[in-house]
Amino acid sequence: QSLSAGMAVAGLVLLARSVRLTTKFTSALDIPVEFVEKNVKLRGKIQHITEKGLEVEHVPISVPFLTALQRKWQSNSLLLVRLAGVELSPGALLWLQGELKPSQLIWFQLLGRQDLALECLVLVNKGRFLSVCLNEEILRQGLGRTARIEGLRHDSRLYWKLHKRLLRAELKAAKKNKGIWKEESTPGKVMDRVSSSKLMQTLKQFANWLRSY
């Protein structure tokens, strides 16, 4: 009897997990805390690109019968997804609208939740085996600056790992005078600007963080 009871409990746990994985999230508050803490990747369709962020329709894992049953009571509200660690320039919105197609599938990795918005790394497929991180691509195009990654502990390894990737992308744009860096005409001026910017200050913080470990 104890074995049967254990199997029943295990079955309920698996069912609960499958329900969560197949549930269509229509609000940032609906997403379980552990999903955010474990930086789970979710799939979705781009519906609108706004100044506040990407409005995304969550596309959960599809399971026959269970998915059809859930659709009867799930709403069609959209998730607000923001590019974590990036401060967008005015030209970034137009670039995103030209780069992303309506109903395009994306993956968004949960890093944090601020009010009703999700702070994420957004991944877009660019071929069968290639995906591009929009957070980094925006910075490589010179259409934004690095910012704090809200939702992650600023003394964690993941925070600095991701922040370092974003800093490298921003530095590439600065060296090539792309986007917001075009006003700087010579490499020397670019590096002077970079050395006095938040970019260099953050690198110094990163170096201090490494010494502490």
Provide a quick synopsis of the model:
This protein is of the alpha+beta class and 213 residues long. The chain has helices at residues 2-22, 33-37, 66-71, 92-99, 134-140, 157-175, 187-195, 198-211; strands at residues 41-49, 54-58, 79-83, 86-88, 105-114, 117-125, 131-133, 144-146.
List keywords for this structure.
213 residues, alpha+beta, OB fold (Dihydrolipoamide Acetyltransferase, E2P), five-stranded mixed barrel, two-stranded antiparallel ribbon, 8 helices, 8 strands, globular
> What is the overall number of helices?
8
Number of domains: 1
Structural class: alpha+beta
Work out the number of β strands: 8
The portion of residues assigned to helices is 40-55%
Second CATH tier, the architecture? Beta Barrel
State which percent range the strand residues make up: 15-25%
H/E element string? HHEEHEEHEEEHEHHH
Keywords: Acetylation, Membrane, Signal, Transmembrane, Transmembrane helix
GO cellular component, one term: extracellular space
Membrane topology: Single-pass membrane protein
InterPro entries: C3orf33-like, SNase_OB-fold_sf
